[in-house]
Write a structure and sequence with these properties.
About 80% of the residues lie in helices and about 0% in strands. It has 15 helices and no strands. By secondary structure, it is mainly alpha-helical. Helix 5 crosses helix 10 and helix 6 crosses helix 15. The protein has one domain. The radius of gyration is 20 Å and the shape is globular.
């Protein structure tokens, strides 16, 4: 069996080393907002640039980049809390859905205008509209995206999100927005959950609203990514019909697993309220495992990335990401202050 091959194990071990280093680096001041997935990916890129990667190790590296990624995404479903989302109300759901729909349309339009190739516009849209690196990691296999595309989009989104954290912090100090509306706005527009927590932690009354607003977008990850995967297969299917696409193999079923794990956790919390502390501990440990597996996957993506392709669309991707995010914030701000209130 291939997994017994020493070269397979050393390939997996290489991604594990990058994942451990990325997770520890993400705890350092100034690097928290980049997140472990982005840092593991960057370390993978550095591994590719400065260390020789034997061809026979790519089997193990590919296993991390594909199989372990799917397992990590499924386990990450424990972050979902359907009871909390049910209390959020229709307006927060419409805001989250609206941000995703507007983002998918806007980023793809900008990508076409700038002449971005392949899956880059859709990956940038998923990154900014849903939940950053985790969303890109989930969407990439569903879209059959190249490693180079994933390796380009994730660092851009992480850097943009980090700059947005500073911008929101200064803006709130100057504008003194109502805490609830500020939390909802940041939760609807920032890339990562950690970024939402960072900008809201110092604003009393904003953290819960921001978390709920962000989780509403996260729960929509599964149907959106599954829909994108089916849409891509419809375009490649001979008849171009939904029936033909559904008959094709390699559906992104793992994102439905993500949703199922979240539903199971929420059901346990509702049915067994007396075990709340124990369930929270299990969820925390599961998230730790999920992040580690996804960091290994991102390291694998980095190690397998062709640098020549990264340079080709770099500047245009940054322009699309920045302009699209500004448009997304504009839409969300209008919705929050005129509809949610």
């Amino acid at each position: 069996m291939s997994y017994r091959c020493p070269h397979f194990r050393t390939g997996v071990a290489a991604t594990a080393c990058c994942a451990v280093a990325g997770i520890n680096l993400s705890r350092l001041p100034g690097l928290q907002h980049l997140g472990p997935l982005t840092l593991a990916l960057l370390l993978g890129l550095l591994w590719r640039a400065f260390l020789h990667v034997p061809e026979n190790q790519h089997l193990g590296i590919g296993f991390s980049a594909k199989t372990l990624l799917r397992v990590g995404i499924v386990l990450l479903g424990v972050r979902l809390d359907f009871q909390l989302l049910a209390q959020a109300g229709v307006k927060i759901f419409l805001l989250g859905a609206g941000v995703i729909i507007v983002g998918l349309i806007l980023f793809n339009a900008l990508g076409n205008w700038f002449g971005l190739s392949g899956n880059l516009p859709m990956l940038i849209a998923v990154d900014s509209s849903i939940c950053g690196a985790s969303a890109v990691a989930a969407a990439a296999p569903a879209m059959n995206a190249r490693d180079e595309e994933t390796a380009l989009v994730i660092p851009i989104g992480s850097l943009l999100g980090s700059v947005a954290v500073l911008g929101y912090t200064f803006f709130e100090t100057w504008a003194q927005l109502p805490p609830r509306l500020y939390g909802i706005l940041t939760g609807a527009t920032l890339h990562e959950i950690a970024q939402v927590m960072a900008v809201n932690a110092a604003v009393p009354g904003a953290l819960e609203a921001g978390t709920v607003s962000k989780l509403m977008r996260v729960v929509l990850l599964a149907p959106v990514v599954f829909g994108i995967g089916v849409w891509k297969q419809m375009r490649s299917a001979k008849g171009g019909r939904l029936r033909d696409a559904l008959a094709m193999p390699n559906k992104p079923w793992f994102v439905l697993g993500f949703l199922a794990v979240g539903a199971a956790c929420s059901l346990c919390q509702w049915a067994l309220p007396g075990l709340g502390a124990s369930l929270e501990s299990i969820k925390s440990e599961t998230v730790t495992v999920a992040v580690f597996l996804m960091a290994m996957a991102m390291a694998g993506v980095g190690i397998q990335t062709d640098f020549a392709r990264l340079r080709a669309d770099g500047a245009k991707s940054v322009a699309v990401a920045v302009l699209g995010w500004i448009g997304l914030v504009t839409f969300a701000a209008v919705f929050v202050f005129y509809v949610v209130k």
